[in-house]
Predict the 3D structure of the following.
Amino acid sequence: MMKSLRLIYAAIILVLIIVLSPARSVQALTPRCQVGNVVYSIPQQAAPRQHIETATTVSGSCVSNGEDYYSVRVDLIDVPSSRIVSSNSTPIGYNATKFNVTVENMVTAPSNNGTWHINVDVYVIRAGGTSGFYLLDYRASSNATILIGAPTPIPEFPLAPILTIAINFSVLVMTFRRRRKRRTLKE
């Protein structure tokens, strides 16, 4: 009888764990932030190996009870290599019901001239006060390009000097022909 009672208790506990666990994790994973605006400040041109400062301003609001700590993180990713070339975060704090924060990143431009393609990934992260877990409450990605080096000029065809040379050569040829005609007519 005692063995049956232990089995029943174990079954009830197991059923409760299975039934309640997904409900808690789905609730915990539900994003609680709405971001209204993300503004990037990235230069359009830079010199090779130049240190570039970027700024990303994020504004929005989160469901906040004062227990969770929020921050905004911005990653700059080199598209050709898929490597994070800069990552920085700025705290929002415990009261994130309305926020407007700016995250500054410092990155070094590539050494080659050309167009540099980067992704700007923005995250709003919540850190649990009592449990210590980290949850992603918002994510956005955007593409940006920076021209590295001086713009390559479009080669111009120097028409004026060539045209002048061609006209002078034609005049010279015509002058020699006329002189030859005159000499042949005189003879």
Remarks:
- The helical segments are 2-29, 159-186.
- The domain at 32-148 is CATH 2.60.40.150 (Immunoglobulin-like).
